């Protein structure tokens, strides 16, 4: 996926916006002085699905440095987002990803996400899909996914 790999990372201003809003987290490879191994950026979407007023923590981006892959760090980031979403009274976590890339939709399925039918996609996710299409991502190769937040 050289086109995706060639994309610029988020700008410092974008990252600062997520940090200031309290919707970004990093994970290290171990220990307090270890290098950053991955991060997640989250937006809050109005995503009613089947119930009016529903809101979701939308994973805008989750990245783990390949040097730290296969250590469960991505899953730990997603589980952290679920904990934060629960604390904010959100109903779900959503994301969009590539349908057929093994480390995308199938991976997220193993992390508790399910692919949404078009009828289950609310206005927030539709706006995300429209932005992605405007950025050149083919909607036919993308899926919207959802993971319910455990209400414990």
Give an overview in words.
The structure is a single chain. The protein has 152 residues and is of the alpha+beta class. The chain has a single domain (2-148), classed as Gcn5-related N-acetyltransferase (GNAT) (Aminopeptidase), CATH 3.40.630.30. 31% of the residues lie in helices and 28% in strands. It has helices spanning 2-5, 12-21, 73-87, 105-110, 123-134; strands spanning 24-28, 36-46, 55-64, 92-98, 114-115, 142-148. Strands 1-2-3-4-6-5 form a 6-stranded mixed sheet. The termini are far apart. 28% of the residues are buried.
Secondary structure layout plus pairing:
Blueprint: H1 2-5, H2 12-21, E1 24-28, E2 36-46, E3 55-64, H3 73-87, E4 92-98, H4 105-110, E5 114-115, H5 123-134, E6 142-148
Looking at how many chains there are and whether they match, the oligomeric state comes to: single chain
* Amount of beta strand: 25-35%
N-to-C series of helices and strands: HHEEEHEHEHE
* Spans where pLDDT lies below 50 across 5 or more residues: 1-6
Strand order of the largest sheet: 1-2-3-4-6-5
What Rg is obtained from the alpha carbons, in whole angstroms?
A: 15 Å
Mean pLDDT: 87
Write the CATH homologous superfamily: Gcn5-related N-acetyltransferase (GNAT)
């Amino acid at each position: 996926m050289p086109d995706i790999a060639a994309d610029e990372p988020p700008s410092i201003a974008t990252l600062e916006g997520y940090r200031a809003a309290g919707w970004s987290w990093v994970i290290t490879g171990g220990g307090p002085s270890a290098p950053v191994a991955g991060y997640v950026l989250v937006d809050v979407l109005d995503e009613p699905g089947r119930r009016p007023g529903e809101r979701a923590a939308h994973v805008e981006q989750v990245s783990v440095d390949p040097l730290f892959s296969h250590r469960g760090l991505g899953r730990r980031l997603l589980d952290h987002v679920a904990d934060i979403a629960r604390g904010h009274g959100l109903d779900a976590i959503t994301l969009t990803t590539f349908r057929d890339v093994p480390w995308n939709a199938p991976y997220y399925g193993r992390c508790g996400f399910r692919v949404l039918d078009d009828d289950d996609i609310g206005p927030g996710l539709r706006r995300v899909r429209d932005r992605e299409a405007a950025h050149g991502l083919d909607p036919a190769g993308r899926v919207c996914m959802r993971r319910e937040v455990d209400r414990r």
